[in-house]
From TrEMBL:
Family: Belongs to the universal stress protein A family.
Protein name in the entry: UspA domain-containing protein
Pfam families noted in UniProt: Usp
UspA domain span: 9-141
Annotated source species: Mycobacterium rhizamassiliense
Amino acid sequence: MRPTDCAGPIVVGIDGSTAAINAAHWAIDEAIGRAIALRLVQVVRAEAASTAGGEDDDLATQYAETALHAAHTAILASGRPVKVDTAIRRGDVDLTLIQESRGAAMICVGSVGIGHVASRLLGSSAVALAKHAHCPVAIIRTDGEPPHGKKIVAVVDRYPDSDDVIHHALDEARLRRAPVLALGVRRWKLGGISEQELDRRLGNWLPRYPDVTVDKCITDTATEYRVTRNESIQLLVTGRADANKLSRLIGPHGYALPAYPNCSVLLVRR
């Protein structure tokens, strides 16, 4: 059973960047696994659409068409059996993507690190989606290399959405044939989750995923774990409590530090 019964598409924000195409590639498995469409969306900013004479709008539309064609071509080149829809939307980028998240099974954007925008679309939009999207948000930071052997980390705490986080992490692990690390966090050492509580929460789900290898660990925060452990993580799955901490989880642009490897984040929102 997938973590959501939404029949809407997997939406991917496109902006002409390699990061966006990498996000589209990552989303292929999501769409195939759910038997739903992949929807590629390029947003033409409102100011470009409203300029006198329409010249800027024409150029922006041509750019959008080119970017969508490149992303669609890259997906077709994968040879995977996925249905792809494309759309050009006009308006504020953040608000438009939040609107797209309504009825979507998931929305994905690419990132090269918060603090630097992957072209013009991403960065602030990733933060806006994390706070206001109506579905899970995947912020994909990858260099396109195969993630073989890299873990999927589930950030588990006492917040009500922790069960959803575990469910999504286990489902991603099955989909991507990856091991899971259940990371019990104490969050500033207040209201910390105990190992017994972590075991109880995992016990509700592990029998449904006998094919997934799961380890566990207790730490203060997910950021602390990433900084102190030099481990390869392909995806960190977390809940609403981390919506304001994307820059810490994803990492800054342009730093090749062990604390900031290419790690994507799936923020579970309901």
